[in-house]
Amino acid sequence: MNHKKKQIIDAAQSLFIKKGFTSTSIQDILNVASISKGTFYNYFTSKNECLIELLQLIREEIVYERKHLETSKEASDKSVFIKQIAVRFHIDRKHNLLALFSSLPTASKEDDELHIYIKTQYLQEIVWIAERLTSIYGKFIKKHAFDYAVSLLGNLHFTSKVMYDVKPHILEVETIINFSLSQLDNIINTHSNDKPILFQTEYFHPYMEKPNGSIKEFKFEMKQILANLEQQINHANEPKTSHFIDFLYGELEAQEPRIFLLESVIQSLIHAFEGSDNEKNARHLLTLLCYMEKQES
């Protein structure tokens, strides 16, 4: 990510949490980021767009952490799923999203784009949970997967709230997720395809992530990112990072790139850039790779 853009997003995030989204003006962001109004509008058309970009970056962080967990064990392992759900809780806490969301205005015509984005995010979370439940319990629950996903999410959120109210200092996210999942186990153990379905799969079709582009376009964007990263590293001091970039570029040139190798090397690249401005660009490579996988399937 461009350093100046990151500077703006970081300033905006701190202000949204400290003052609230509504109370933060664009001038406040300019003052904290030490930039001109023209610089801000080079990157964002509005404060809403700035927040959407921030939320998208956080989402990519969640996607990366969840994907990383899947590489260590089978995706059907319940312990992996528990950790993956916990990722959202931990990252939301890290970025203080509860405080940020509580300061958002109610939906209005002016804020439609922002509220649509947030609604899409949580409905995509339900889609992800439904897909994961199917991979864990088996395809025989597929028709009811969204019913089970909504039940799990509802149980999880309400249980978390009650636990926070009665014992705020011993809130163990993984314990609560495990408890909620065990409740779902009891329901699925009595599963029957004759059960009525409340949440039909087609209700969620608009929120099932469909990569907007072709494999060729995703490859091209990945190569652009790699070229940009290559320009910013010191080849003499960072030979391993340079090797990662060269390997990824070469693999993307292949007629049939090996996805598992690309994923492994991209994760090494993310680790190499950890803590730097380039970490988010490296993570975006993983997002694009996921899009390629979906287009191939």
UniProtKB/TrEMBL annotation:
Any one Pfam family match given in the protein's UniProt record, by short name: TetR_N
UniProt keyword annotations, A-Z: DNA-binding, Repressor
Signal peptide start and end residues: none
All residue ranges annotated as the HTH tetR-type domain in the record: 2-62
Top-rank taxon, per record: Bacteria
Residue ranges: DNA binding: 25-44
The UniProt record lists the keyword Nucleus: no
Protein name: TetR family transcriptional regulator
Organism of derivation: Oceanobacillus kimchii
